[in-house]
Each structure stands twice: as structure tokens, then as C-alpha cells.
Amino acid sequence: MKLAWQDTDVIDMPTLGTRIAALDGLDEVPGGYGAKLEWARTRAKAFRAEFAATGTPDSVTTCDLITLPYPTKFGLFRASRAVAPFVSITNRMLVVRWTESDGRNRVLLFEPSDHELGQNTPYFAALIRRTPGPLRNLLTTRHGTVLDHLARLGIEPEDVDYLLFDHLHTQDLRRWIGTTGPQADLGGTLKPAFPNAKVVVQRRELLAMSRLHPLQRPWYQPETYRDVPPDAFLAVDGALVLGPGVAVVATPGHVYGNQTLLLNTSTGIWASSENAIAAECLTPEHSRMPGIARWTRTWQQEVVLNANTIETTAEQYNSLILEKTLVDRSQTDPRFLQFFPSSELTASWANPGTSPTFTHKALTHR
């Protein structure tokens, strides 16, 4: 399937931000994944002080979007002994604002998912078909839409500069960035809801989406990218500082072009991605969920992955160690880290044995 950016120069577009030299060079590390693991840990330690010195953004606000079921075998990969086949996760958007050195104000939306269209992703569409409507409604809670949250915060859509996702699983961006031709399912050619926003995405993911592997296909909607404007994308490589206390870091594994939002705030450094679904998955020895602490002792693995695609599992493990090393400890409970899952494990009566030991629920900075 031909995507919008094929036969264009979108893959060769200039990138933005300031390159993070301390995190360059992973692909050139000699040896196997064990050597790369030590590289990730060492380089993350070196970059922490450098990142803190960039300053802080003006504000970070958390907006709940939707709580929905997700397979336990994916979210708590191999570690859980819960009988419940599903966990509940809450998808959240972060609204990040900062001021450039020249006085320009910037607005970045992290994980502004259009969940109404996201449910057409093959895996979730099949799950929806198998679940009776009343049960589906009982297990799903819609908290608010992207545009409603922005209106509440007093942010006009045309003031949004960047849209950032940790990866493009389930994402249908047509309503956000518009289309260049009519869309049969949406009633015509779409004007962009965010006319001035660029989608910041790792170049690797754009390239991978052009020819999906069978393991990837259940989680993407490539047909929705045929008629989106190529110039709405900003292809980046690796790690970049975008603004004071705001960075994007390549964290491959969950998908080929996975990336993490890094924030320096009044409580220290945070990372947000979907590499794990709970903060306790980075310090599983402190988890009270059935099986988690025992699993980490038995197998001497210090993190529990969110592993639905398992594109490159060892890379994802290393990426989560990178995130674990970059962030600070929670001021609420120092056993846990300031890792904020973009889809966070949420307690539910329907999923016994999957109630998290600790949740952040929000990431706030003013």
C-alpha cells in the first residue's frame, strides 16, 4: 500500500531541536544486546545532568482520554499470575507548553489519540466484534476528547505546534492533520483540526510503515495514511532536546521507531511512553500484583515489558532500562520511579489480580 510520504522528500526533511550527542551511537555499539544494555545505562547516567540543565517547560497538564481493556499477557508480559485475561489501562494526553529563547510560545500534545477512529485498528476491531455491546460499554470509560480538553485549557487548535506519539500503533491522524482527498468513511476531504501542527515521528517508523511486517499489521492503520499531507510530518533521528526541559528520545523495541517523551519538572525528570503500563513494572520487586515480584526474582529481569508486538524484545528491554536510568524517584513513594505510562494500568473490579500497587494518575508541572 502506498503511503502519503512515499515518492516525496518527507523522509529527508530537516529535523528540529538540538541533537543529544550523549545518546548517539547505539547502533554502532560492538557486541550483542548485553553490550547495548550497559551502553544504555551508562549513557543515560551521563545525560541526566545535561538534560536537567536545559531548564523546565512552562507547564505540563494531564488529560484523561479513555479507559479500556487490554490483554494481560501483553501488558504484564510473562510476569502476571492473575486469572483475569484483561487489565484496564487509561490512555492520557499530556499538554506541554514552553517558551523559546526568542520569546515564542510552543504547545506540544503528547498522545493526542483520536480514539473514535483508533478502534478501527485490526486487533481492537476484532476484539470489539467478539465483545457484546453492553459488556463493552461497561468495561470502557470515555473521559474526554482531545479537543474538549484543549477548550477547557483555553488552547486554540491553531496554537498547537507539535503532535507527538510514542509510536503510531492504532493512530488515525486524518482529523488532526487533514487529508488531500475525499475519505469515504468520513464524508469528504478533511480540513486539519490542527492546521499549524507537525507530527514529530522517528524516521524509522515512517520507513517501517511503508512496508509492514505481518507481526506489525494488527496494530497499524496504514490505509489512513494514504491521503494525509506529507509536509505535516517532521521526521527525526534519535534523541533531541525540543525546548527547555523537553526532549524526545529514541527507545526502539516496542516498535522499530518507538520514542519517549522526557520532561524536566519541579519534581525532577520524568519519562513517558508505552514501553511499560505501570510504574511498578520498572521496579517489579516492589509490586504486590500476583506473580510480578516472584517473576523478577526467578528470572533476574529488572523490568516488565508491555509486549504486544514483540518486534525486538531485547531492544525494548534495553530502552526501558534507559528510561529507568534517566528518571527520578517518585516523591510520593520512592520505591517507584517517575515513569508515566502513556497508557497506565488502572484498577478495575472486572480484572482481579491486576490492581496496581502504585499509580501516578497525572503528571503536572507549573
UniProtKB/TrEMBL annotation:
Cofactor(s) required for function per UniProt: Zn(2+)
Highest taxon listed in the record's lineage: Bacteria
GO molecular function: hydrolase activity; metal ion binding
Keywords, alphabetical: Hydrolase, Metal-binding, Zinc
UniProt record similarity statement: Belongs to the metallo-beta-lactamase superfamily.
The protein's name in its UniProt record: 4-pyridoxolactonase
Taxonomic path: Bacteria, Bacillati, Actinomycetota, Actinomycetes, Kitasatosporales
